[in-house]
Amino acid sequence: MKRRIAVVTGSRAEYGLLYWVLKELHASEAFDLQLIVTGMHLSTEFGMTVRQIEADGLPIARRVEMLLASDSAGGIAKSMALGLIGFSDAIDELRPELIVVLGDRFEILAVAQAALVHNVPLVHIGGGDTTEGAIDESIRHAITKMAHLHLVTNPDAACRITQMGEDPARVHIVGNPGLDHLLRTPLLDRETLAKSLGRPLGARNLLITFHPVTLEPEDARQQQQAMLQALDQLSEPTCLWFTRPNADAGGRELASDLDAWASTRPHAHVFTSLGQQRYLSLMSHADAVVGNSSSGLCEAPSFSIPTVNIGDRQRGRLAGNSVIHCLPQTDSIHAAIDEAMRMDCTTAFNPYGDGQSSDRILSALASFQTDRKILKKRFHDL
After folding, report:
1. Residue 15 and which of 71, 102, 111, 381 are 20 to 30 A apart at CA?
2. Using CA atoms, how far apart are residues 213 and 123, in angstroms rounded to an integer?
3. What is the pTM of this model?
4. Residues 126, 104: contact at Cβ < 8 Å?
5. What's the mean pLDDT in 269-283?
6. What is the C-alpha separation between 78 and 245, in angstroms, rounded?
7. What's residue 372's pLDDT?
8. Cα angle at 211 between 222 and 99, to 5 degrees?
9. 217 band by pLDDT with thresholds 50, 70 and 90
10. How many CB atoms lie within 10 A of CB 359?
11. CA 119 to CA 8: how far, in whole Å?
């Protein structure tokens, strides 16, 4: 009899990381995939990316509407409350034997809370990392303490989770599942990509994403402005390819400022969502990745291109030798981009795995016993 496994996705980035895990679960004879779609996927403002999930042929078991038309702290908290109600209803209806979540967004915290009170074992992918500039740090560690199986991307993360009192036997190093695209997803050549984007690539190209810095909300707009000023000072003609910020608190203000700035610069192109294939294809043709997205640390090194990581949003996260950290100030960002343009990243090392994470994740799920005893966690003293 197939095991019912619910997997929750709420954002384009997270879905990209989960894509091959979902594909393998759907094709498996051992599992009954119950895909729950929520958050930005169901919002027109963020590209209605649920359509991409449908186009990918993955059956959606439930849609949980939770995003309000507000990205204030109060709006986010109310969205979480709506999510908790919706996920509780979904668990009642689907009765999964396991719930799988990835990462550290507020939608995922609501899922973890619902799983906790429903006594459904929780599997957490990507715990143990550290990002000092965002509330994601606290959310991620809170989910760790509610989870029963930990599938981490690197040894440092595994060490932190055991320091938090989790049983080492329940911690598996699987790598970053987003890297599976490097072995399985055909990337678009330069000409095909340009046609898909609707505009040609330049002689130099930067892929840029700047998300809200949720522990520094009063400074986020100023930090993005500093980045835009640094981009204005580039000495050589460069095409700037932006993806819009996510639905964290303050994201709408950042998106509005970015749109206004780009509207007067024909070399700047802004996309709500590129989709995984176009995003990674563009990364493969870019000269550098700029901003504060985790993809600059987790995926970019595998393309042997440099990353300019701005500010504290990803501070503390494991980074390869192709990543340049800089202050969120115009001069520092400009200097870091100049350095990136001179870097030789042919020997760049990606500390997040080898592109075979999905197989390891399915193996861990298959061997994980879900009897009632698994819910009783003991604090593992070092």
Report:
1. 71
2. 27
3. 0.87
4. yes
5. 94
6. 20
7. 76
8. 150
9. low
10. 14
11. 17
